[in-house]
Amino acid sequence: MTALDRLLDDAERGRWPASDDADAWLALANWAFQTECLMTDKAENLAWETEMRELLRRDLPYPEFVEHRMAALERRLRARKLAQTNLRYKYGFKPRRAPLVRLDVKRFHRWWGGADVRVTARLYGLEDDR
User: Fold this and answer.
1) For the chain, N or C: smaller number of CB within 10 Å?
2) Which of 95, 98, 97, 80 lies closest to 37 in space, CA to CA?
3) Cα 16 to chain center, whole Å?
4) b/e map of 115-124 (b: 16 or more CB within 10 Å)?
5) Residue 50: other Cβ atoms inside 10 A
6) Does the pLDDT value for residue 40 go beyond 70?
7) CB neighbour list of residue 65: distance below 8 Å, 6 or more residues apart
């Protein structure tokens, strides 16, 4: 069992690290950040595939198809950068008050451990990663 496994196991039991245990909170924030990144990426990829299928259904001439696809790529890149920036801020990898980071880690862990997460995890293809 790794140190992270122990931290997550303790969190399942409602035992969180002391607020001054920066290493433990960093490990938990890193776990939450990486897990939420993967979920965000999978959701974004699904949205991209859906958007491209809709574009293909329009049977556009080449120049118009490329124009629409490039515009969609620009929107996709902008949205991905914003999502990653927000996650870095949320989990303290950009300057943020530690108590707020700890609160968001706890919220994510509670959501992740909830009954509804099994459905969401299956949707994102994460059921084996949990």
Assistant:
1) N
2) 80
3) 22
4) eebeeebeeb
5) 10
6) yes
7) 55, 58
